[in-house]
Design a protein that fits this description.
- By secondary structure, the protein is of the alpha/beta class.
- 45% of the residues lie in helices and 20% in strands.
- The protein has four helices and four strands.
- α3 links the parallel β3 and β4.
- The longest helix is centred in the first third of the chain and has 17 residues.
- The chain starts with a strand and ends with a helix.
């Protein structure tokens, strides 16, 4: 099962994104665990994760987020849209792409 972590500042908008990604995976018949996290809980959330998707509003702090992800051997990508209106299929495709690039 693929495990994706979505992070935003406090975890609220990442919950919206996680829901959309989960729905996209279900519509494709994929077994995916999508977890929303805030910056404060990210280190714990990365344990066992396959991909980290970062809300675009966190780009100014991307370096520190990438450090955490690198320490957990998790590839990172920035979500292209506003997290609350995110296209779940596009975000799922992004996660699949960065996981594939790591393999």
């Amino acid at each position: 099962m693929m495990r994706i972590v979505v992070v935003c500042g406090a975890g609220a908008s990442s919950t919206f994104a996680a829901l959309r990604i989960r729905r996209a995976a279900e519509s494709r018949g994929m077994a995916v665990d999508v977890h929303a996290a805030g910056e404060q809980t990210l280190a714990e959330a990365l344990a066992g994760a396959d991909a980290l998707l970062v809300g675009v509003h966190l780009v100014p702090r991307l370096g520190s987020l990438e450090q955490l992800a690198r320490a957990a051997s998790v590839p990172v990508a920035v979500l292209p849209d506003e997290t609350r209106t995110l296209d779940g299929d596009a975000a799922l495709d992004l996660a699949i792409a960065i996981i594939g690039a790591r393999a």
